[in-house]
Amino acid sequence: MAEVAAARRSRITPEREAELYDAVLDLLREVGYDALTMDAVAARTRSSKATLYRQWGGKAQLVVKALRHNKPVQNFDEIDTGTLRGDFHALLGRADDAQMEQNGALMRGLAVAMHANPDLHSEFKSQIIEPEIADSRRLLQRAVDRGEIAADCPALEFVVHMLLGAFVTCAVLEDKPPTAAFLTSYIDAVVLPALGVPTTE
Question: By the 8 A CB rule, do 198 and 85 touch?
Fold first, then answer.
């Protein structure tokens, strides 16, 4: 049964999958999560609704897969400059301010939708939040292994909180997402000093 399901999923090419994800995100920006339907996705992407359900299972899974596919960095292990500051800066170097602005508005809408849709919240947590926390921990562990950060540094447990805080406070205080330049300055002024890491190389 698993082999049959895998064979069905494999019929969608990577190019077609990317096209579907782009269409889903466009619809999300236009109508929001609650108003988005699988019928609308099928019409926009010239797909059958049965194919969408067979491939993704439901709206929450499809939306979260589209969000994950749209991330500028799919795997933090791709980044290894030899220093934590270099790694953070390299990650931000892949960020696109225009895309961050688009995604910031999208995420604000989804944050509200997650409160009313437990399936969306569960899917978002397992497919995006938990993998990103694991990626961040590996990035930080490399810095500990290199001797950049003390293994018992209390700030290690709060790096994700600090970074998320930068996004949230920009949205609340300035009604806009952070730019790559803002995040670079924030990392040098807040995150690295909290970890005891030099901000110059």
Answer: yes
Q: Give the integer Cα–Cα distance in Å for 74 and 131.
A: 10
- Got the DSSP string for 16-43? HHHHHHHHHHHHHHHH-TTT--HHHHHH
Q: What tens digit of pLDDT does each residue of 26-55 get? A: 999 889 999 999 999 999 999 899 989 999
C-alpha dihedral, 93 to 69 to 168 to 164, nearest 10°: -70
Neighbours of 123 (CB within 10 A): 23
Contact present, 60 and 119 (Cβ < 8 Å):
yes
Report pLDDT digits (tens) over 60-111. Answer: 999 999 998 887 665 677 788 999 999 999 988 877 787 777 777 788 788 8
For the full predicted model, state whether its pTM sits above 0.85. no
In angstroms, the CA 38 to CA 51 distance is: 10
Distance CA(121)–CA(124), nearest Å, equals 5
Q: What is the DSSP string of 98-127?
A: HHHHHHHHHHHHHHHHHHH-HHHHHHHIII
The two three-digit tokens of residue 77, written as one number: 């292990």
| Mean pLDDT on 172-200 | 89
State the Cα angle at 14 between 8 and 20, rounded to 5°.
85
